[in-house]
Write a structure and sequence with these properties.
This protein has 151 residues and is an alpha/beta fold. The protein is 43% helix and 21% strand. The radius of gyration is 14 Å and the shape is globular. It is an enzyme of class 2 (transferase).
Amino acid sequence: MSEFVPASHVYVDNPASTVDEVLRFLSQTAVSYGVANDVDKVFEAFKAREAEGTTGMMGGFAIPHAKTAEVSTPTVIVVKFSGEVEWATMDSKPVRCAIALLIPDDGTQTEQLRLLSKVAVLLMDADFREKVLASADSQEIAGLINSGLES
C-alpha cells in the first residue's frame, strides 16, 4: 500500500471555502483521474454521507467519503485549503485539510471501513496532524499518509 496515495492526489492551497466546493472539487477530480464516471452522482454520494452525520473530525481535518457504483477503484484524495473551510466538526473548529475516500459500491463495506479506521487512527496522532498541516509539499504529505496507512 506504499503508493496508495500518490503525490499527484495531494492538492495544496486549494481555494475552496465551502463544504460543497470541496465535495464538488473531489468529485470532479475523481472523474478526471478515471476512477469515477459521473461527477454529479459522486457529489450526491458525498452529500448523502454528510447528511447522515458530519465527516468533520478534530484538529482541522475532515474525512469526506463517498461509496457509489460510479467509483471503480478505491481512491484517496487529499486537499489542503488556502484558507479555512467552515465544516461541522467534533471540536467546532474549521477544516484546513480533507482526506477524502472514494469507494466502489460492490456490496461490501470492508475496504471503506478499513480505510476509514486507518485514517481516523492517523488523525488521533497530534504529530501526524501537525506535520500534514505544516507541509506545503505534496510528496511529503503523501509519504506521511502512506506510512500511516501501512501500519
